[in-house]
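lol forgot to send this yesterday, sorry. struct tokens for the thing we talked abt
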């Protein structure tokens, strides 16, 4: 029951499924599907996606243009005149391009239709002459909740203005738990790199809504440079709990993993949010304990654009931390969130990650040690061990990963190596989590940890090293967790697109991170300077404060030691007068000398805190 759609081809995003599944054409698509399916001409190779997204049966006759696309029941389009079909559907949103090539082959009286009637209006298109350009479908989804004292806030910036976009517009549709559309609006974006903020409390008041838990669909038109809609998602509770996660992966994959099993007294809730205008069949989605073949399917279908919360303990009563799950998602969901409710009732939200089914172990990585040093690094903050417990759980992120040779290297904030811990050659079904304070002590200071491949323990590595990091206050109920994957950092040579660059070809050796700030809550940022090979002894980092409309008004500097980290607090870094001018604004963290990795968070006077990794542009 996998949804057979192409999300990437030749490392480029595919947009056909987005175009056919766009919420704004859902009613047109319903009407379109009620017509009998005629003979099809599939010049662009969209037939499988079309049949999956419409759930229509394949017609008896399909014509193709590419000779290599011929199958037993297909015909070349050059044969259509002899077959004399009465009706022909051209599977294209731009049929004119194909009619100019083959229109003279059509038999007299043949009625021609296409997908043109399902197009968005041209005023929503960046490139109307190339309808399936990914820039025409800069879309994403976000968990959005205003219920039982919980509030959500999306914060982002019009980053496309830096690439020359001057007529961007935000379109938004809010769906409730059942997938019903309960609010819809659009608003122009000013032609500057300015803050975009959407608050659930404001939306509830603006549209006079009851409490809701659902998802927000976001479409930014007029984008340039890239089509990725990035955001920070903060959740607040009236009782003082806060949590943070970030943008969803906008291309729904077949598999996810990195979902933790609950500890004793905990609850783990998986939020599944349907990203399509067709229902998710219960047997189309399943969960299994990592490394085990027995799986459990859902107990009901999920309606189009609907939301379904699953208590993991109800499906796997015997599973417990540090076990973890993988999700066979069937290409139905952008990155799902999960919520951990600890034994004292504190809730934090995080996300699971894409598990790749196109990645095999790369035995060459072991050979590259002389040239690339540490090679792939996964850096994460460490809070003071006097006050916090930090747990590290390596998570397999490839279907082909049967073993993971992993080592954790701990550094203090000045870049001094405090020691290392080898997890060994972890099997896929491992149950090994490292409690950092069992091995290392940072006292009242902070630092960071780097996960790297341990080729003394094993050879199997794929460059897709991931882990979950859980942070728990020792005396307060507050906790947060985040997860991410490894990259090569700060070396002048490249391997398979690493070190990645946000703009231009690799190597990525500069930093441009977005820090969303809160005017009333302490906002902190933890910056890490990892190096795969020796690099500059210190960073040359600029913290540039911008107003809500994108005007830079103040700047601060940081010198981060190589292999070190710095945690700064927004309210202590910039003056009250500058913060007053910058209300609703943001900070850009810039460095022209090295690539940093960053985490953002907030803290309340009660000790509640949030944290997740940052994004850049």
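and heres what i got for the seq, position by position
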């Amino acid at each position: 029951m996998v949804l057979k759609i192409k999300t990437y081809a030749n490392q480029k995003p595919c947009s056909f499924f987005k175009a056919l599944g766009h919420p704004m054409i859902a009613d047109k698509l319903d009407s379109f599907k009620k017509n009998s399916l005629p003979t099809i001409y599939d010049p662009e190779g969209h037939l499988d996606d079309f049949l999956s997204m419409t759930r229509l049966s394949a017609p008896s006759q399909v014509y193709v243009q590419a000779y290599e696309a011929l199958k037993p029941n297909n015909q070349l389009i050059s044969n259509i005149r002899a077959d004399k079909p009465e009706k022909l559907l051209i599977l294209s949103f731009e049929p004119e391009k194909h009619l100019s090539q083959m229109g003279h082959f059509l038999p007299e009286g043949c009625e021609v239709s296409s997908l043109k009637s399902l197009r968005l209006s041209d005023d929503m298109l960046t490139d109307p002459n190339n309808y399936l350009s990914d820039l025409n479908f800069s879309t994403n989804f976000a968990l959005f909740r205003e219920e039982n004292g919980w509030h959500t806030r999306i914060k982002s910036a019009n980053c496309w203005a830096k690439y020359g976009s001057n007529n961007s517009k935000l379109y938004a549709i809010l769906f409730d738990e059942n997938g019903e559309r309960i609010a819809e609006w659009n608003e122009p974006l000013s032609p500057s790199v300015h803050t975009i903020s959407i608050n659930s409390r404001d939306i509830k008041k603006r549209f006079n809504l009851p409490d809701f838990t659902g998802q927000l669909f976001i479409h930014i038109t007029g984008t340039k440079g890239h089509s990725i809609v990035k955001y920070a998602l903060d959740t607040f509770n009236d009782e003082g709990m806060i949590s943070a996660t970030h943008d969803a992966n906008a291309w729904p994959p077949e598999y996810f993993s990195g979902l933790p099993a609950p500890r004793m007294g905990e609850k783990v809730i998986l939020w599944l949010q349907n990203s399509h205008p067709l229902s998710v069949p219960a047997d189309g989605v399943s969960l299994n304990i990592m490394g085990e073949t027995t799986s459990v399917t859902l107990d009901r279908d999920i309606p189009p654009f609907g939301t379904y919360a699953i208590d993991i303990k109800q499906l796997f009563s015997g599973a417990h931390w540090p076990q973890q799950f993988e999700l066979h998602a069937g290409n139905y969901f952008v990155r799902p969130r999960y919520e951990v409710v600890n034994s004292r009732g504190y809730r934090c939200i995080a996300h699971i990650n894409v598990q790749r089914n196109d990645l095999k172990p790369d035995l060459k990585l072991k050979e590259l040690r002389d040239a690339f040093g540490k090679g792939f690094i996964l850096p994460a903050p460490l809070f003071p061990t006097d006050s916090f417990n930090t747990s590290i759980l390596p998570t397999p992120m490839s279907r082909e990963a049967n073993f993971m040779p992993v080592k954790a290297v701990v550094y203090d904030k000045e870049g001094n190596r405090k020691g290392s811990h080898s997890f060994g050659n972890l099997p896929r079904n491992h149950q090994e989590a490292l409690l950092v304070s069992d091995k290392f002590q940072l006292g009242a200071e902070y630092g960071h940890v780097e996960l790297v491949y341990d080729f003394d323990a094993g050879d199997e590595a794929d460059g897709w090293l991931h882990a979950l990091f859980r942070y728990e206050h020792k005396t307060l109920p507050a906790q947060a967790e985040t997860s991410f994957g490894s990259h090569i950092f700060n070396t002048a040579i490249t391997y398979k697109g690493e070190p990645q660059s946000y703009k231009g070809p690799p190597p990525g050796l500069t930093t441009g991170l977005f820090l969303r700030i809160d005017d009333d809550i302490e906002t902190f940022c933890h910056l890490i300077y990892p190096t795969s090979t020796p690099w500059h002894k210190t960073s040359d980092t600029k913290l540039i404060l911008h107003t809500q409309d994108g005007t830079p008004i103040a700047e601060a500097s940081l010198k981060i030691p190589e292999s070190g980290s710095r945690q700064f607090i927004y309210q202590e870094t910039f003056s009250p007068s500058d913060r007053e001018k910058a209300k609703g604004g943001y900070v850009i963290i810039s460095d022209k000398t090295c690539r940093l990795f960053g985490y953002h968070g907030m803290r309340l006077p009660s000790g509640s805190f949030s944290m997740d990794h940052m994004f850049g542009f």
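The longest strand covers residues 417-427. anyway ping me if u want another try
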